[in-house]
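Archive transcription. Copying these from loose printouts into the bound notebook so they stop getting lost. Printout 1 of 2:
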Amino acid sequence: MNPNTLRAWDTSVRRAVVAGLALIAIVFVVACMARIGVVSSLAGDVTATLQQQCGSYEKLMAADRTKSLFHLTNEMQQLSSYLASNPDSVNDAFLEQQVGDLNLTGISVIGGDMQLQASGYTRQFRDASWAETLLGSLVADIVDYPEKVYADRVQVDGAFYDVCAVARKDAPGLIIGFYEQPSGLITGTEDDLESLLSGLQLEDGGNYAIAEDGHVRASSNDALRDLDVADDTLLSGISEAPNDAHLHPVRMDMGMVWGYRSEAASYELYVYYPMSAIYVVALIAAGIVAVAYLLLCLVFFFVRARALYRNQEKLEDANRNLTHTVEMLKSLESVYFTLFRVDLAESRYQTIYLAPWLEDAVSQEGEYTELKKLFLGTMVLPEYRRVLDKRMSAQFIRENLSKHNTSAVRKSFYTDYVATRGGANRWCRVTVTVVDYDAEGQPARVLALLQDVDQEKKREADYQERILEEARAAKIANNAKSEFLRRISHDVRTPINGAKGYVQLAAAHPQDAALQQHCREQALVSLDTLTSLVDSVLDMAKLEGSEVALEHRRLDLNDVLDKVKAVIQPQADAKGITCRIAHVDDEYCAYLLGSPRHVGQVLMNLVGNAVKYGKPKGSVQLSVQFKGTSQGKAAYEFSCSDDGIGMGEEFQQHMFEPFAQEAPGARTVYEGSGTGLSIVKKLVESMGGTISWTSANGQGTTFRVTLSFAIDTACCIDRSDVGNVPDSLRGANVLLVEDNEMNMEIAECLLVDLGARVTRAWDGQEAVDIFAASSPGTFDIVFMDIMMPRKNGLEATRAIRVLNRPDAKTVPICAMSANAFHDDVQASLDAGMNAHFAKPIDVAKLLPAIAKLVGFHG
């Protein structure tokens, strides 16, 4: 470039600088003037709002004064009337009581000679007498004109008082009452002038202050509240400025402000703004103009320089495109830690944004191949280099991001890899996206965006692990279900096969009475086994589902032990095992509160297992030891010992699992399902007890269970009815409701054999109709199935109970249902039934229950 060109260029630059400075100065001055006008308008609007609020406040205070004086006048007139009827009440004590009752500050009673006769004040005004002395000349004529009343709000020592004077009706004189008004507050509220303006917020950092008699009553600036205007340089400076509805600069200790002064009623209003409210906006405007002017100059100079450089136009276009792209990608800096712009045709890159830890290692621009080599060689772990090198090559990018292979939605692809940073390995992701295409539809320029996805990868890995864990758990559950079905299938089919076989054998030899008797007995044994298995499985299901419904009723330990012995003794005798079940003789054993059924179930399972796995001619012993009382509970230790086959150490780790049995073929040899100990453990824990054991192969087993029961000292066991159990239902009229033909036939045969007369009903609706059509007292008892068409047993029971006949609410109704869970029993009782019998029906339990319900003794 020759010297003339340089001189011309230098002159142009100087002229542009001078013109730019002049333009900026002009814009600044104009912006300041315009801003002063805007802020003045804002100040005027604020002042108008303050004037309106002050006017509203004055109206409120006037209304409050009128209301307060009217109330005080009314109270004084009523007091005058009261004293006329009770002249002896003119004393200090009574007046002080009235001051407290009426919530006043003071009351004075003055005689016709204007001398004080009695007075009452609140504690802080006890020695005050200003009311009667101050007002003496104003109210003296009320003595001569009793119809007159004096009421006004006066100021004394800076405080405001509502005062009222009325004539006495008991004697010549006056009654004066006064009440001190809270300073600046509306009576009965917490509202004052400042609270009415609490929601007023000024723009651009402005503040306001309201003064009365030179004292600040309210301000948005906490530092100005309760000050005197003369004591504050800011407010005093504003007060000296002209009151011409314009902002004026005011100098103060800490600088200058723009102030605005006005008036409203008895108030002086001050509004002021910091200097920044004027100059900051002007500076911004000047800055914008400066930037715009600078950009204009740059464009101008770029256009002029194009003649000096042949490819200046191309470079300028590239710079504009790059600037536009950079502006769009700045928002991505929070997601991507590094951004490169890659020109595939020239195989070069430019850095748009670079992570701080890469600034010393990566240049702002250079060869794309060198950039790849740097990253792959020093930052990417070896196992990811080959794949990343391939996917970041220009050939791969062109093949995958050409217009033929992309859509309006998908114009990018990404590759995940692991990089090292600060000695730690982190998952990263490089995303390649197209910026523009060449004439052949191939990507010309792309963006390479580097992103840290370590947390995302960890969450994904955790999610995958959780999915795998859930799959493993589901597989284990499925296997457990299959194993359960396999075991229960064997256990159910065994007694079913036995019962079916004996029935078929009896059918094949109808003439052999002895064989018939034997087949029936064995079939019943098989059915009892099947029933026991079903009960065990249902108990286990309820326990696993946390549905243990413990009872809380009277419990006699010896009764429980007797029932256990009655069931277990025949099994022990059949195997030649000596079974000893001891009684308890402490003073509490018959007066306990607990769940007898579940305690018996625990002991029945333990003793039953001891007999089942005991040696022939061996022994089983169940002992109970009283362990003492604590906090109203009695503790007992139940110890069940046998000399049977015992348990190995390995099996003891799993013996409480459902269906667990140590001996091979135990289901066939010992006729057990393996659910007993599982049920025992769950029940003991549900009752708050503990269980321990000692055992060894071939040396027997001892289980120890400790349970605590509440003591019912008020309980008295009545055994007068023991043994008074009927042996038949002769003469009883029974309504039998059952929808299943087989169950109807079985139940009818059972009841007829016991001597009852049976009337059939095949569903709940028919039962209601039959009962309603019968004469009162026809039926002694109703046996009701639960699950039936038209009306189920619960609905039928409710329908019978609401019938308008004398026996509808008293006839015993008993459920006979295969649903035997605790909630089923409770639902039956809630519907109005008297008892619940589970199928198959046990006659030994049926007859005592009927005797108790209807007083029938056969």
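Printout 2 of 2:
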Amino acid sequence: MQFLPKTIPENQPEIISVKESPPELVTFDVGGMKCAGCAKAVERQLMQYSGVISACVNLAVEVATVECQPGTVDAEALAKKLTDNGFPSQSRSGENQWEAEATTIERRRQEIREQIKQLTIALILIILSGLGHFLGTKAPILSNIWFHWGLATLALLLPGRPIIVDGCRSLWRNAPNMNTLVALGAVTAYTASNAALLFPRMGWECFFDEPVMLLGFILLGKTLEQQARRRAASALQALIALQPAKARLVDFKLASLDLRSEELPLNSTSDVYDPQYIEIPADRVRVGEWLQVLPGEKIPVDGEVCEGKTTIDESMLTGESMPVLKQPGDTVAAGTINKSGAVVMRATRTGKETTVAQMVALVQAAQTRKAPIQNLADTVAGYFVYGVMAISVLTFLFWYFAGTHIWPSVLLGHDMGHGASGIGHGAMGMGHGVLGIGNQLPITDYQLPITHYQSPLLLSLKLAIAVLVIACPCALGLATPTAILVGSGIGAERGLLIRGGDVLERVHQLDTVVFDKTGTLTTGNLTLTDYLPVFQNSEWDLNSDINVGNKQDVCSTIDGVSGNRQDACSTIDGVSGRVDSKLLQIAAAVERGASHPIAAAIVLEAQQQGLPLLAAEDFCTEPGFGVSALVEGRRVFAGNAEWMKEQGVAVATELSGSLEGKTAVYVASGGVLLGVIGLKDTLRPDAKATVERLRGMGLRVMMLTGDTASAAAATAQQLDLTAADVLAEVRPDGKARTIAALQAQGCKVAVVGDGINDAPALAQADVGIGLHCGTDVAVETAQIVLMRNALMDVVESIELGRATFNKIRQNLFWAFGYNTLGIPVAAGILLPATGILLSPAAAGAFMAFSSVSVVTNSLFLRRGFRA
């Protein structure tokens, strides 16, 4: 039943409703992306496809997520379109998702191995090139210009070939990327050096070592970056690896599967270790089938223990290292490890419905959702390479036509062989003075006069090349996804599932945390404390012969409650027990149709007293009010005082006052009050500590509940919450309105809840935090899911969100700062005043390590969240 309002006051934010039919999501593995420009190009191509609503591409994990209208997008056709445009893609749809994931991981490993091979060749060429500088005339062969020409040629044909080919193809497809810039720089340096070699009287220097070192540094940086990205994704890969491949299907009727004995050791010879079974793939298991799990094996699917007793290691799902005891009736999750005993379980959820599969899906989705702060970087990335090429051309034109004439001193150099004081090829250090031809290789085959100046054309060309290779679109593209990758991985290890970068940004902005009471701040395990039967003018037969399992007088005698009737607690022996039990029996029959903790407590008490179940049908639940049903042909209502008033049932003030600080459930039929049941809940052990920690973080903590004001006040007193921070007797739709009202006041609100009643508030909040032990709708609505049943995880999830978002800001600051400062320096802005000039090789080194620094900074996030 839907209670979300359709209209709200203008001064309140619009209340967000839970979508009933969300758009279809399609996920692709996308290869061939080299930088943020590539990711932006892929997004543009996806958005051009009919039926696509939005597309999000993650450069760090090479995954694209497409949100589209249901049934309008052919995933295979879309993947083929990307592949034809130079980005080899594969859809993850279908039952072979996990096989595709394994294939993707293996492909990335193969790419790293190939990259290391190319890097080894490049490093050998760099060493040979460097020896020519250090040894000089002591090694004529190594210092020969033709030898260095050969090294540069090999560098372009072997390790540099994939970079050059990809860069040219990207430029041809009108989607230039980082490889385009590197290819232009390396090929231009090689071509200019060839011109200097073939036409020596131009007086140009040969710098064949530039493309060698440039490509070597680029490959080194990319290899380190790939390794760091692999480490960042290790947590998700470990989560995926949890999913077992095989399951042991058994016939539960076999005598050999009677596991009622004590836990069995690993070397046991019991029949349980040699049953009649069939081994099948875990993804072929069907709900309801019986499976056997031996010690040391993984639980194949979600299920319920039917026979046997064991301990289960659930650390990868919840972050809790201590094994959990499991007995018949307890639930177990796929991927957890059976530690001590053999058990037989019944499958309840399989395939994509298992807990671990849902965790993998949540983490993967989180890694593709961007933080709004990334929008600026994405906008810049879309035009970055074009802008850099334009700046490179302007740099060449300025220095060739104007710069060298305005500052002719920049052309002055030193004698050959003494080295320049710029950033040279040997020490790679920053110095002063003009980079002349001092680092020029000895040309042993030509007799040239020693020149004391540098050609304006050559200087302009080298500055233009430096601009090309120092620019780093990778740093911009990796700033956000790598931080989210590490942060979501840490969360997955600790049982904290954060749905994406947009959630992280909102977590960073929070100033108010609102908790639901029952089942969130409290344990939700209510106990019955009072039975107050009334049965005035009621058609119910109190003397009917019912089987009362416990006739002890358990009702509470309260002065003034009985009014003009005889006190039920002072009746003859046994009658009191019958009255109370009849009230409990009626209430349990009604509450049997609800899933609220109050209903569970009443039904459990009736079962413990051995009361027979009354026939009930036509159940109807009013969220936030109560439940009604036809019991023995009479409509019975069980709920709060407000609902009783709506049903025309009078509730005595004395009755409400007698249950001060407790949850009161009124039972009525035919407009007559039958009685009231009092229940009391207990705080979670970590509730007060959680509230204090959140306050210490500068957050305002509030409590929102549909319970009575007195019950809410009793809980608030234990938590040291003021009356202004307690919102009681709020209906489910009222909860959403209350959160909207706080937002209208400028508050950034997080809501923590676990029940169906909390779903509208979770959806309305800036950040909804749901407990995994709660209802599915609460978990689906929340932006942060806490896998452990620990309230302190609310604190840890907010701390993790804040720390991850801070890393994103640091990475973006470095990425923008690096390019903002590096490109002007490479363009020669410091050359006239200080003589500082970057050689193309040095510029390439800075570019390569800038992206490495961004990924490494993201990995430092783990320092603050060590177990």
